[in-house]
Specification:
Oligomer: single chain
Number of helices: 3
Order of helices and strands: HHH
Distance between the termini: 45 Å
Largest sheet: none
Radius of gyration: 24 Å
Length: 122
C-alpha cells in the first residue's frame, strides 16, 4: 500500500476524463420579478406568523416551554413550504422557498431565539 508505485500505468492526457465546461451566467438565468415577489411574500408571511406565535411566550416573565411553537413553525415553514414546492408547484413554488428562507433567516439572526430552538432542554 505504501510502496513506491513504479509499475503503475499513468493515463495519457487523451484518456483522461473530459473537463467540465463552465456555463457562463446569462441575464436570462436571473430570477424573474414575479419569482422574487412571490418569494418575498412567503418570507413576509412567515415573519408575520412567527411574530404572532412567538410574541406571547417571549413577553412573559416566566417562559413556558417553547416546544409547541418550535414544532409548529418548523412544520409550517418546511412542511407547507415543501408541499408548495413539490406538489403544488407553478407560481406557488417561490412562495414555499420564501417561507423556508424566512425560517432560516430568523433562526440565524436570533440564534434560534425567535423560532423556539433555544428553548429546548438540551
Amino acid at each position: 500500500m505504501f510502496s513506491v508505485a513504479s509499475n503503475v500505468e499513468m493515463e495519457s492526457p487523451q484518456e483522461a476524463a473530459p473537463r467540465l465546461k463552465v456555463r457562463r451566467w446569462e441575464r436570462s438565468d436571473a430570477p424573474s420579478a414575479s419569482f422574487l415577489r412571490a418569494a418575498g411574500a412567503g418570507f413576509g408571511t412567515f415573519l408575520f406568523v412567527d411574530l404572532v406565535m412567538m410574541s406571547a411566550p417571549l413577553m412573559m416573565s416566566r417562559r413556558p416551554s417553547l416546544l409547541p411553537q418550535m414544532v409548529t413553525l418548523i412544520v409550517f415553514a418546511f412542511g407547507l413550504g415543501s408541499l408548495l414546492i413539490w406538489k403544488v408547484g407553478g407560481t406557488w413554488r417561490p412562495f414555499g422557498y420564501g417561507m423556508m428562507a424566512g425560517w432560516c433567516f430568523l433562526t440565524l439572526i436570533s440564534v434560534g431565539f425567535l423560532t423556539g430552538l433555544t428553548g429546548l432542554p438540551f
